[in-house]
Specification:
The chain is mainly alpha-helical. The chain has 2 domains: about 150 residues; about 240 residues, no CATH class. It is about 60% helix and about 10% strand. The protein has a 3-stranded antiparallel sheet with strand order 1-2-3. It has a 3-stranded antiparallel sheet with strand order 4-7-8. Helix 3 crosses helix 6, helix 3 runs antiparallel to helix 10 and helix 9 crosses helix 10. The longest helix is centred in the first third of the chain and has 82 residues. The radius of gyration is 34 Å and the shape is flat. The chain starts with a helix and ends with a strand. Keywords: Coiled coil.
Length: about 400
């Protein structure tokens, strides 16, 4: 009896284990199917948007080409009036334009030596038609310029990105010169502040004590804070909810061995371009990041106008937020280490291919401080340089 019950129990447990395994299998299949469905949906949306944009551009270009051809034909007719050298009277009846007897007929050459007679009414009609087509051509050109401008915003060129980056870099430089360029006694630096600066450079004391060198140290600190607060997660500029949703979707799509780095990068860029069209920069995120940077930088600033300092910092953060949106929609990334996927920020040999040497302090050939990040364009696992980093060795 006990043996039969044990056998039945073992059989039931085996059946239960088999069903649990089947449930887990079905859950995995459902999860993978959902990720595939999400990916296919976004790929379809992106494909439709690009197709619509390309078709609009093509139609506008074809319309302009047709109008320009008609304008050229009418321009040839209009030049006949300028070539007229003789006038003669016509008895063909009242002018259709004015209801008065027709004015002298104008004659001109059609380019083949043949003389073409034209009444004043015909010339006036041609002129009106010419002006109408010219106005229509101008409107079409304006629409095409607007469309091209929108494409530029959605897909910023490298030249546009470099200009945008230089504007941000100039703002950071100017603030560092105005409020962070005074020599500071080491006994005024707290232990916690010393640890913060030491992450930038183990020679931070030399920068603090050397004339006209503190600005480099604190410029570097501002860039580090921007990288940590904004650039490490580009989509944050559209708000916390959008950022979390995109991160969750990205984690669901990213399966090593199933989707390549190149494919994932393409999904990220196209998705960010769609989000950029429907969402503005979240000003509350700008305020939050500006407040965090203010809390750090105010301890090192010269002068007593903390409110003005906060205003300058917020302007910088707002420019950086626009830059973060650009990073999200392109292949361009900022880098403030010696090379991609590295954690080294100082103590390595200066690389002339990616770095400009702004000065020397230790003179051992190694980078003592990275002042600004460099800009790289990433294509899969390949990188190309757009803007060099500034360093001090």
């Amino acid at each position: 009896m006990d043996t039969d019950m044990a056998t039945q129990l073992a059989s039931a447990q085996a059946e239960l284990a088999k069903r649990n395994a089947r449930i887990r299998q079905l859950e995995d299949i459902a999860k993978n199917s959902e990720a595939t469905r999400v990916k296919e949906l976004y790929e379809k949306i992106v494909k439709d948007v690009k197709k619509d944009r390309d078709q609009t551009q093509q139609n506008a270009a074809q319309k302009i080409k047709t109008l320009e051809a008609e304008v050229n034909k009418l321009r040839q007719i209009k030049t006949l009036e300028d070539e007229v050298s003789h006038l003669r009277q016509s008895t063909e009846g009242p002018s259709t334009a004015t209801g008065t007897p027709p004015k002298p007929v104008h004659t001109g050459s059609n380019g083949d030596g043949e003389t073409i007679p034209m009444t004043r009414a015909q010339i006036e009609y041609s002129e009106r038609k010419y002006r109408q087509l010219k106005d229509e051509s101008s409107r079409q050109k304006l629409q095409l310029e607007i469309l091209n401008a929108q494409v530029t915003v959605d897909q910023p060129s490298n030249q546009y990105i470099i200009v945008q980056w230089n504007q941000l870099r100039d703002q950071v430089r100017q603030l560092s010169l105005e409020r962070f360029n005074e020599v500071k006694p080491l006994d005024t630096i707290s232990e916690d502040d010393g640890k913060t600066l030491e992450k930038l450079s183990i020679h931070y004391r030399t920068f603090l004590n050397a004339d006209r060198m503190p600005c480099y140290l604190f410029r570097s600190l501002i860039w580090r804070l921007l990288c940590d607060q904004l650039f490490i997660n580009f989509s944050l500029v559209w708000g916390r909810q959008v950022c979390d949703n995109l991160n969750n979707m990205g984690n669901a799509l990213w399966k090593k061995g199933k989707i390549s780095q190149f494919e994932f990068q393409g999904w990220r860029i196209h998705t960010a371009r769609l989000v950029h069209k429907s969402h503005d920069i979240d000003e509350s995120i700008v305020d939050m990041v500006a407040a965090k940077i203010q809390d750090v930088m105010v301890r090192f600033a010269s002068g007593s106008d903390a409110l003005k300092l906060h205003g300058k910092i917020r302007e910088i953060v707002r420019l950086a937020a626009d830059m973060g949106s650009t990073f999200a929609r392109t292949k361009v990334i900022p880098l403030m280490t010696n090379e991609p996927r590295s954690d080294l920020t100082h103590g390595f040999q200066c690389n002339e291919n990616t770095m400009n040497e702004a000065g020397q302090v230790i003179k051992d050939g190694k980078v003592s401080l990275m002042i600004t990040p460099c800009l790289l364009e990433r294509d899969g696992d390949e990188y190309s340089l757009l803007v060099k980093a500034d360093v001090v060795s």
